[in-house]
Design brief:
With 432 residues, this protein is mainly α. Helices cover 60% and strands 4% of the residues. It is built from 22 helices and five strands. The chain has a three-stranded antiparallel beta sheet. Helix 8 (129-149) crosses helix 10 (192-208) and helix 13 packs across helix 15. The longest helix is centred in the N-terminal third of the chain and has 21 residues, at 129-149.
Length: 432
């Protein structure tokens, strides 16, 4: 085993509630979404979004909510990873299963909703998409001011900052091509009245997801919002703790315990865990974890199966027919049969490689750091962002919207982030 030097985790601002209290607040914000997710996952298939009118009525009657509340809760449940759509079937996301016992899963689900606030809250009618996109790009600066102020900030101060940031975006604008569409920058920036309207929309949207509260002429971050902005500024994540006693843990806990280890020490942990179990039951347990909703565990399960070697080959070959596992199984089999790991990707079709890219991005978004998600773009086989977005939209991975929203929130290039955000909006609304 090796030891690695790590910097101490930054401490949150004084007065930040403990994670358990933040998770309690997040559960309160998403209470209706959780109820709807349980309803949808218990055998009543609501179909693909937007919800059909008859399904809305059934859900509203069953849950004693209005149709509008059901529609809002459904969108929030999807964006927070509480439910996933597989064709026309709604399945519980891994966060829903962990909701009552795992505070970090709850907080990550709420952060995913926080990142997607502009999808949850419809933009004002009659405003050009470019102006809306610029406002969304300017919001992080508004949130930073609120966080640094550690209290209420007047709307005029926020409006002044928003106007300055939008003006900077006009000066710095360097659009990337997106398909055949052309998005020429307007000759002059939005008017003060338009900025005020967009600021009101943004503040209402952020308030609707529990990130801030609105008073008479001022806004204040909630404890949840303050914590989330601080986390993003510090670029830290809620992650699994260092492994301890992995040999006695079930497969999922063992894999999470090894997630932060380098490959050598991780393989040593896998070997120790496997040595303590009959190989057949160990392989079955790893594959059961791989079939779950957590993409990080799926990838790690196949890493552990590489240590098993020949005894796992028949079972891995048998699961190559299961769509979510197929890319992992094909790569495992290629390497088992002697293909150089650097060349193993060649066994995947374009669609399989794209599915794997989204699945890996979901693992990074759930468990990794911001920079890893941005760098993950370089691993896509498409070569260009527009081509990647086109194929990601078509591949139908249930985590597509969440991955694109997280990537847009993380990427430092405003133009690229806007293109990714646009793709997320199209997938969320059923476009192709």
């Amino acid at each position: 085993m090796t030891t690695r030097r790590t910097r101490p985790a930054p401490r949150p601002p004084e007065g930040t509630p403990p994670p358990a209290e933040l998770a309690r607040q997040a559960r309160a914000v998403l209470a209706d979404a959780v109820r709807i997710a349980h309803w949808a996952a218990d055998g009543t298939s609501p179909g693909s979004a937007p919800l059909a009118a008859q399904v809305l009525e059934r859900a509203a009657a069953a849950l004693e909510l209005s149709p509008a509340q059901v529609r809002t809760g459904w969108d929030r449940a999807r964006l927070a990873g509480l439910i996933e759509l597989h064709g026309d079937t709604a399945r519980p996301g891994w966060r829903l299963r962990a909701w009552d016992r795992d505070d970090s899963a709850v907080l990550r689900g709420w952060v995913a909703l926080f990142d997607a606030w502009s999808l949850v809250h419809a933009s004002p009618d009659g405003i050009e998409a470019a102006a809306v996109a610029e406002a969304v790009e300017a919001v992080p600066q508004v949130l930073s001011l609120l966080q640094l102020s550690a209290g209420a900030v007047t709307v005029p101060a926020l409006l002044d900052l928003l106007g300055q940031r939008v003006a900077e975006l006009h000066e710095e604008r360097c659009e990337v091509p997106y398909g055949q569409q052309e998005q020429p920058a307007p000759a002059e920036g939005p008017s003060a009245d338009l900025n005020a309207l967009l600021l009101d929309w943004a503040l209402e949207g952020l308030a609707s997801v529990g990130a801030l509260t609105l008073g008479a002429g001022h806004a204040t971050l909630t404890p949840l919002g303050n914590w989330a902005v601080w986390v993003k500024l510090e670029q830290i994540c809620v992650a699994a703790q260092s492994p301890a006693g992995n040999i006695e843990q079930p497969a999922a806990d063992m894999l999470l315990g090894c997630a932060r280890l380098t490959p050598g020490p991780a393989r040593a942990e896998y070997r120790a865990w496997l040595a303590a179990r009959p190989v057949g039951s160990a392989v079955a347990e790893l594959l059961a974890v791989a079939r779950g909703e957590d993409a990080l565990l799926r990838g790690l399960a196949f890493e552990a199966l590489r240590v098993v070697g020949a005894p796992a080959e028949p079972v891995v070959r048998s699961v190559a027919t299961e769509a979510p596992l197929r890319p992992y199984a094909l790569l495992w089999l290629a390497e088992y049969e002697g293909t150089d790991p650097d060349d193993a990707q060649d066994v995947l079709s374009r669609e399989e490689a794209t599915w794997l890219w989204v699945d890996t991005a979901a693992a990074v978004a759930d468990h990794g750091e911001t920079g890893l998600l941005v760098r993950h773009l370089d691993s896509a086989v498409q070569g260009t962002v527009p081509a990647l977005l086109d194929e990601v939209r078509a591949v139908g991975h249930p985590r597509t919207v969440q991955v694109l929203v997280a990537l847009a929130a993380a990427h430092p290039d405003p133009a690229l982030a806007k293109a990714v955000r646009r793709a997320a909006f199209q997938v969320h609304n059923g476009g192709v």
